[in-house]
């Protein structure tokens, strides 16, 4: 073989060898998340060591999502797939199976105190400071398992994040303490805030159940209107992930103005008022405080 060709061949093989060792332990972890709240958490907790591909875009509804072919491609190339569980993403198991993915899966809500809603579990467990600490532990645990050499950094990122979370939680609880319990009643379009309600002693009423798949019946809507009149509810909120039409109809009928928008199952666009998990919690609770 010509010496120059031999030289190139050797270098090419060396590069290939180098590339394969690098990809197994040193390059950033390729993580796929099912929806924007998990995308934010993984980025906050994984820092420079993760590259995240997120499936359900910001301001979009994960209950009714239709996976795209590119989603299966992203999953097939991932080191870790993170999803909420509690039957929130009814489409994900099939998608993972069809992609041929064999690496690690993390159900982020594993271990939360789930709220029962009839026969179903309420999937919206992230709307709770207590629960999100469980998500955080689960995510950090997975990241450390896959990249143990960065344990110290992941532990530090988690500690900093938990600190910010607690600061926000205490501040919001203090602000809410001045509102009498009887006034803490809110109407939203679908039942996404039971966890927040449990934690902050707020009553949420919605014409649509926990999964949006079934449309509200005339009876459901009439029931909500009755409650608004009976309890003199002042806080009506549309959500960022679904059509505001139903809430607008209820607002018109009860002559209660819509108090704004709550971020339930997805973050806002980047630069918007709820573009991270912490910003979402702050924005939602401050919007409720203003309406009460
Ligand atoms: Zn929902």
Supply the key terms:
about 290 residues, alpha/beta, Rossmann fold, 4-stranded parallel beta sheet, 10 helices, about 50% helix, binds zinc ion
What does this structure look like?
With 292 residues, the chain is an alpha/beta fold. It has two domains: 25-168, Nitrogenase molybdenum iron protein domain (Rossmann fold), CATH 3.40.50; 172-291, Rossmann fold. Helices cover 48% and strands 14% of the residues. The protein has helices at residues 3-25, 36-46, 69-76, 92-99, 129-146, 151-176, 194-200, 218-231, 245-254, 277-291, and strands at residues 29-35, 50-56, 80-83, 104-107, 116-117, 120-121, 185-187, 203-205, 235-239, 258-262. The chain has a four-stranded parallel beta sheet, with helices on both faces. Helix 2 (36-46) crosses helix 5 (129-146) and helix 5 (129-146) runs antiparallel to helix 6. The longest helix is centred in the middle third of the chain and has 26 residues, at 151-176. Mean pLDDT is 91; it is low at 12-23. The structure holds zinc ion (ZN). Residues 63, 124, 190, 192, 264-265 line the site of zinc ion.
In brief:
With 292 residues, this protein is α/β, with parallel strands linked by helices. Helix content is 48%, strand content 14%.
CATH C-level class of the largest domain? Alpha Beta
Computed CA radius of gyration, to the nearest angstrom: 23 Å
The name of the CATH architecture of the largest domain is 3-Layer(aba) Sandwich
So, the CATH homologous superfamily of the largest domain?
Nitrogenase molybdenum iron protein domain
Instruction: Count structural domains.
Output: 2
What's the CATH topology label of the largest domain? Rossmann fold
Task: Estimate what percentage of residues fall within beta strands.
Answer: 5-15%
Query: What number is the mean pLDDT?
Result: 91
Q: Hetero groups bound?
A: zinc ion
């Amino acid at each position: 073989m010509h010496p120059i060709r031999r030289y190139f061949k050797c270098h090419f093989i060396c590069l290939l060898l180098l590339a394969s060792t690098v990809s197994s332990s040193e390059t950033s972890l390729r993580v796929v998340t099912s929806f924007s709240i998990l995308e934010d958490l993984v980025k906050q907790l994984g820092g420079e060591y993760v590259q995240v591909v997120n499936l359900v875009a910001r301001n979009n509804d994960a209950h009714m999502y239709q996976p795209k072919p590119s989603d299966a491609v992203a999953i097939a190339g991932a080191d870790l797939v993170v999803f909420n569980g509690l039957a929130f993403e009814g489409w994900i198991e099939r998608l993972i199976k069809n992609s041929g993915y064999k690496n690690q899966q993390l159900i982020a809500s594993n271990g939360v105190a789930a709220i029962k809603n009839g026969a179903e579990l309420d999937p919206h467990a992230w709307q709770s400071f207590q629960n999100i600490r469980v998500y955080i532990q689960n995510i950090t645990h997975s990241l450390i398992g896959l990249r143990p050499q960065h344990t110290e950094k992941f532990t530090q990122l988690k500690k900093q994040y938990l600190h910010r979370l607690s600061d926000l939680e205490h501040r919001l609880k203090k602000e809410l303490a001045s509102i009498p319990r009887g006034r803490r009643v809110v109407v939203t379009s679908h039942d996404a805030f039971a966890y927040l309600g449990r934690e902050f002693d707020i009553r949420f009423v919605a014409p649509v159940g926990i999964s949006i798949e079934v449309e509200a019946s005339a009876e459901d809507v009439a029931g909500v209107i009755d409650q608004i009149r009976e309890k003199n509810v002042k806080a009506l909120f549309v959500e960022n992930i679904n059509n505001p039409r139903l809430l607008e109809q209820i607002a018109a009928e009860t002559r209660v103005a819509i108090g704004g928008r709550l971020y339930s199952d997805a973050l806002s666009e980047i630069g918007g008022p709820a573009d991270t998990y912490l910003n979402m919690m702050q924005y939602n609770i401050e919007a409720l405080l203003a309406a009460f």
